[in-house]
Amino acid sequence: MKPIIPLSLSLLLNFLVLCAAADHESSSSTTTILFATLGGRSANAFDVFALPTWDPPSIATEIRITDGRSLNFNGHFPSSSLFSLLTNQSLILTRPEPIPTELIYVTERNGTWNIYYDAVFRNTPRSTRSRSALEEVEEEEEEEDNLVRFQLPLLSSMQSNNQISMKDKPSLSGNYLVYVSTHEDTGEPRTSWAAVYSTDLRTGLTRRLTPLGIADFSPAVSPSGVWTAVASYGEKGWNGDVEELSTDIYVFLTRDGTQRVKVVEHGGWPCWVDELTLYFHRRGSDNWWSIYRAILPSEGPVSTESVVVERVTSPGLHAFTPAASPGNKNFIAVATRRPTSKFRHIELLDLVKNEFKELTRLVSPQTHHFNPFFSSDSNRVGYHRCRGESNGRKNTQLLLENLQSPVDDVSLFRVDGSFPSFSPAGDRIAYVEFPGVYVVNRDGSNRRQVYPDSAFSTVWDQVRKGVIYTSTGPTFAEPTTEVDVISINVDDDDLNGQPEFKKLTTNGENNAFPFPSPDGKWVVFRSGRSGYKNLYIMDAVDGERGGLHRLTEGPWSDTMCSWSPDGDWIAFASDRENPGSGSFELYLIHPNRTGLRKLFQSGSGGRANHPTFSPDGKSILFTSDYAGVSAEPISNPHHYQPYGEIFTMKLDGSDLKRLTHNSFEDGTPTWGHRYIKPLDVEWLKGGPQCSFEDCHWLNQTPNQNRDDVSTKPQCRA
Known about the structure:
Strand order of the largest sheet: 1-13-12-11-10
Shape: globular
Number of strands: 51
CATH architecture of the largest domain: 6 Propeller
Largest sheet: 5 strands, antiparallel
Oligomer: single chain
CATH class of the largest domain: Mainly Beta
CATH topology of the largest domain: Neuraminidase
């Protein structure tokens, strides 16, 4: 096992982070990349909350633990106070009173993912607070709740060789933080980078616990800290699952990842109740997501043959992401989706009485709640949900959310919209909402709708000021579906104040993804007019009537095209190697139909989509499933493709770089020639809408006339 750079968890951490941000802002960055995340990721606005397990749940008894900044989720209550550990590092010299609420959780803030530790003091007069570390440790006072917060990031980018990565599912065992990170490239297409690591918080020494070439998710540390259980692909690898990953449960020694053994075939999200008992979820053959219990043998070898597996929850409701209270075998917490509700809620399951106790539905019935976890004394159950509007903090929404870029000369932003594109001057952004096309100033001002109907894709004409091209009609449609290319002059309003538009295609047979040539004379687009989706070139002003030329031909789909800045190349995505399979590769072709060559393939059966050129024409920006999936999809809100990440590569196929790391669906990127400082850009839309969707496959009521409906504890793995 190779250690990553050792780093003492010291007071220099925050200073180094600030210096890195300052260096980044003052660098010679020259270009900007925008991309979209499905479902309006900013509207998720997750915070970690908790309810008592014994008192009747109510708004009065629910507490919000995290600070209402950015996205906070997948919490963990440490079983022992982290203050003692921090005291050894001279971070906090005296233990404040009263004993705080301590939480470890995942957060997206300051442009990247991290794992934070918060200690929250409630109803504490200022005069009683320890001030020995107030100058070194970030502290936030929340006057509306009379809270005092000590807050500390537990990991630094230096611990992953300065690479950007996603962090997930943290837990603390003694001095060791155990978590998922995606900072190591597997080097294999469509192989997840998710692996489990442990970091000694005293020294910063980090060790990889997952074998190379293996993907591990959702780690859980046993009550003693000796063992860690994970959901893992093992040697199987990812097969493109987007609903339930085909993972098995493995157990290994927490200290070094050795003595690794498979204990359950088909399972995810393990949790321990004692050293020999695991709970996990899986979708049964009756299609109900259910909780199962695995009982490991007390003597002899451990294997899938010696482990007894029992189904715990009955058909009739979905139950998943279980949490157990160490030492208490009488109940567990689960997330549920009942047929009578559109929302995901946290419930307690009494294993003795086989009865559910509702928690979150009684507090916020119209909100999704995710991934429960227990306090060590079993008195509280935590979870995360959208914080909504009434959290005592100014709720803003971001037009542009800055992300830390792994490329020195590029600033990277998530935009609150789909199919973004920059105006030639770089001062305006066009994007799509469903429905409608919108234009907004780069600073978030002057947002206006320029086309009211359903549309997808936007791109600006580089010559004719104020002209945007888009496709109007349904998405993901058959070749004969009515979809047309239009141009919109956003600076030329009609008598009703609506910009004028011109229909450039005439046959309505799935004409989409227009992209103008750099000289403004032509537009390349895809069309289904032959019965297959191929590429065509038409006049930019008069459309088909001014001239039409066929660029590609064949019984497959060529789509998502873009023109290089010098006019020499057109990039596009195609399934021509396996038509209809859903697998897309990237290709280049000259506008005169010569020079066709494949640029990139995301492994067997993989997807690479939405290519666009860098401003200098030397690289391609695109989205792909090259890095597989980074978390169990069931643990997150809905994403059609919870594996899309943003990549760049050179035109010769070299220098592949992964720009984004998360468990969302990132796509439709654009690369502008103007530099935007790496700072969030707010706008006037207001705060989080909490309008995201739960996983769509949970909306379907499974057919109960299937096997595996018995709840008797007799089946074995």
